[in-house]
Amino acid sequence: MIISASCVLTGPIFGFIFLTQSNGVTEITGKVNNLTVGLHGFHIHAVGELGDGCRAAGAHYNPGSKTHSAPQALDRHDGDLGNILAGDDGVAVVDMVDTKVQLSGERSVIGRSIVVHAKEDDLGLGGDQESLLTGNAGGRIACCVIYETADPASSIFELPLKFFQSMMYMFF
After folding, report:
1. 95 has catalytic annotation
2. For this structure, is 77 an active site residue?
3. 76 is catalytic
């Protein structure tokens, strides 16, 4: 069975994130626009709230009470997705596969948030306590709530609606 979800980043930093799970493996794809050149921490956070400059999204999604680490590590937060790289055009192409990110069951990330950070994630190797919590990735510069879509093809039609709804919320 294939499960799909999407997330719409709005504001000065904007873009779309798609999540598709099949056989316990989740593919995460999309684009994030208007970033500064370089690496930016990219995480799933515990709460699906976007207020207070994305701080309402809470901490990294960490149901196993692990320390922060790299996406390839066996012992890590479920929400640790590492970094995305923005090129000279300010665009980061997201293309990753993950087995800890789940779209169903008790560890589902549906209804949680994705947060883009101002700085590079040090993957828990920074040598201090903050590195083991957040990867020293800095402030939160963009965020979105992960919504389930009915099927992969429907996300093409649902995303414009979610984007419009997000824009209406921002301006009215």
Report:
1. no
2. yes
3. no
Name the catalytic one among 40, 76, 112, 117: 117
The pTM score is 0.87
Beta-sheet strand order (sheet of 92-98): 140-145, 113-117, 38-45, 80-86, 92-98, 25-33, 14-22, 2-9, 147-149
What per-residue confidence (pLDDT) applies to 68?
94
Listed in order, strand segments (DSSP E) in the chain are 2-9, 14-22, 25-33, 38-45, 80-86, 92-98, 113-117, 140-145, 147-149
Instruction: Give percent of the chain with pLDDT exceeding 70.
Output: 87
pLDDT average, residue stretch 128-139: 95
Q: Which residue type, as a one-letter code, is found at position 164?
A: F
Catalytic residue among 40, 45, 76, 112: 45
Fold classified for 2-171 = Immunoglobulin-like (2.60.40)
Q: How far apart are CA 106 and CA 94, in angstroms?
A: 25
In the annotation, is 40 catalytic?
A: no
The residues facing 25 across adjacent strands are 22
Which of 40, 76, 77, 112 is the catalytic position? 77
pLDDT over 50 at 167, yes or no: no
Can you give the C-alpha Rg of the chain in angstroms?
A: 15
